[in-house]
Specification:
This protein is mainly alpha-helical and about 160 residues long. It is built from 7 helices and 3 strands, in the order ααβαααβαβα. It has helices at about 1-5, 10-20, 35-45, 55-60, 65-85, 105-110, 140-155; strands spanning about 20-25, 90-95, 115-120. It has a 3-stranded parallel sheet, with helices on one face.
């Protein structure tokens, strides 16, 4: 999206023009305490295996990098909306059930003011997992996801 806005590259611009919705699934917009906690094990692992510790730095809670990234993202979305008269809806699905007794991404970090925030009765890892044979009515998370996605695709979501 950034290249499409800045460079006006034809293929990228055509891609951006087709975006109708962006769906976040358990995204730690403000970081995760788990990144803070994982630094020590990751450093130990780095002794025997190549690891990217800088990723953990970025995902620590309330980093300037995450704040800047969020501001740039919202600015980009706003520019697309103004320039192209395009409607892009933002959804943020987040977990409400703990994984191994704790929340991987807390509610405050997963929710963003610019999106429709949707709580789910799922763990962090369960947010994107659905059974192959699932049908509407089997899983409230799946139902909510299908409802929002269908509304975006059909242009009926409000």
């Amino acid at each position: 999206m950034v290249n499409a806005r800045i460079g006006r590259r034809h293929r990228a611009q055509a891609f951006v023009e087709k975006i109708r919705s962006i769906i976040f699934m358990g995204t730690p917009h403000k970081g995760s305490w788990l990144a803070d906690w994982m630094k020590t094990p990751a450093k130990l692992l780095a002794i025997v295996k190549s690891t990217n510790l800088s990723l953990l730095d970025v995902l620590e809670t309330e980093t300037e990098t995450l704040r800047t990234l969020h501001r740039q993202f919202i600015s980009l979305i706003s520019a697309v909306l103004l320039d192209d008269q395009q409607n892009i809806e933002l959804f943020s699905f987040y977990e409400t059930l703990p994984t191994w007794g704790c929340m991987i991404v807390n509610t405050d970090s997963a929710r963003i003011e610019e999106a429709e925030n949707i709580s789910t009765r799922k763990t962090h890892s369960g947010l994107t997992k659905f059974h192959n044979t699932i049908k509407l009515g089997d899983d409230p998370m799946f139902d909510s996801f299908v409802e929002h996605l269908s509304g975006v695709v059909l242009g009926t979501h409000t």
